[in-house]
Amino acid sequence: MSELITVRVKPGSAKGPLVEAGADGELTVYVRERAVDGKATAAVTKLLADHFGVPRSRIALVSGATSRVKRFRID
């Protein structure tokens, strides 16, 4: 069974790496990596895998590759 989650990414944050859940169910993910050459997205994928306790291979970016609001599918 797969689940879709919406994530708001805060790249280049000194607060990161951190995952915060909002009241509306949207996750805010703070990462230290800058949004250059997909480094922030890769860091978010790794952080989400750790947060949900699944391998990175089970997390896929569905939409928002160049946006701060991204949707991921967790299998």
What descriptive keywords fit this protein?
single chain, 75 residues, alpha+beta, Conserved Hypothetical Protein Mth637, Chain: A, 5 strands
User: What spatial order of strands do you see in the largest sheet?
Assistant: 2-3-1-5-4
Number of strands: 5
CATH class: Alpha Beta
CA-based gyration radius: 11 Å
Q: Spell out the CATH superfamily.
A: YggU-like
Supply the CATH architecture. 2-Layer Sandwich
Principal-axes shape call: globular
- Helical run tally: 1
Instruction: State the domain count.
Output: 1
| Unreliably modeled segments | none
The helical percent reads 10-25%
What does this 3D model show about the protein?
Pfam families: DUF167. This is UPF0235 protein MPRF_38070. Belongs to the UPF0235 family. With 75 residues, the chain is of the alpha+beta class. The chain has a single domain (3-74), classed as YggU-like (Conserved Hypothetical Protein Mth637, Chain: A, 2-Layer Sandwich), CATH 3.30.1200. 19% of the residues lie in helices and 36% in strands. A 5-stranded mixed β-sheet has the order 2-3-1-5-4, covered by helices on one side. A hairpin with a 5-residue loop joins strand 2 and strand 3 (27-30).
Question: What is this structure, in a nutshell?
Answer:
This protein has one helix spanning 39-52; strands spanning 3-10, 18-21, 27-30, 59-63, 69-74. By secondary structure, it is of the alpha+beta class. It has a 5-stranded mixed beta sheet with strand order 2-3-1-5-4, with helices on one face.
